């Protein structure tokens, strides 16, 4: 197993104000797998991803990579192997930094050579030409911004991408383009994805297995075949399935 989360608990705040955002979640992701977490807003999905990065107040449980418990704070080596892409490409890119700066900073921080070449390659990998290199975020569309965010995540050649609603802020047609790009990059590089979405259709399209979360708990794990066959054990998952009824996978490919 590449990533194992065992009985994770995360609590924000104290006493009467405490929010028990994650309550005993366990999951395991294989190397090369695409694993999804789905659930409605506030169910604790983002908090699980942040906990992996050491950015959430974990009160119990263990997170392991390659069988080794992760140390807090996470090491520089961790961030070379594991990168995160956030929901909102508007918020995740600095408004006064060019694409060039966005891409060159992680290379400088981690001491990579051949930066020029890597930046041009990263842009090409996400379908953006060199003409985008010296643009600012406001000179890009939402889909182009999210491509830059993906390029930034991939430029360090990580093995794992943590994707937090990477297309929720995009129009449906652009959403499909970015999902297809992510799918292709994973296939080409043998990447491992852990992808969060409130949209069962998105996770069903992208992921081989998925965990349904509700109120901070994992209620059910499904394989894609279960999803296609509409096989669900719990009433909550059946409700999510019914809500996504009418979606046809062909529409997103
Ligand atoms: P999701 O991503 O599924 O929408 P989140 O993981 O963002 O859910 O949030 C789960 C719960 O934790 C929510 O009730 C949210 O309000 C709370 N929460 C998340 N981050 C914080 C924080 N930094 N401080 C306090 N509460 C938080
Ligand atoms: Mg979230």
What does it look like?
The longest helix has 18 residues, at 172-189. Helix content is 36%, strand content 25%. The protein has helices at 45-52, 76-81, 89-92, 99-109, 115-125, 142-154, 172-189, 200-206, 224-228, 235-243; strands spanning 3-12, 19-29, 34-38, 58-65, 68-69, 82-85, 160-164, 192-197, 209-214, 217-223. Helix 4 packs across helix 5 and helix 6 runs parallel beside helix 7 (172-189). The chain has a six-stranded mixed sheet, with helices on both faces. The chain is an alpha/beta fold and 253 residues long. It is globular. It is built from ten helices and ten strands. The chain has one domain (3-244): Rossmann fold (3-Layer(aba) Sandwich), CATH 3.40.50.300. It binds adenosine-5'-diphosphate and magnesium ion (MG). The site of magnesium ion has 3 residues, from helix 1. Adenosine-5'-diphosphate (ADP) binds at residues 12-13, 19, 21, 39, 41-47.
The CATH homologous superfamily is termed P-loop containing nucleotide triphosphate hydrolases
**Mean of residue pLDDT values:** 94
- Radius of gyration in whole Å, from Cα? 18 Å
Secondary structure class reads alpha/beta
> Number of domains in the coordinates?
1
Roughly what percent helix? 25-40%
SSE order, as H and E? EEEHEEHEHHHHEHEHEEHH
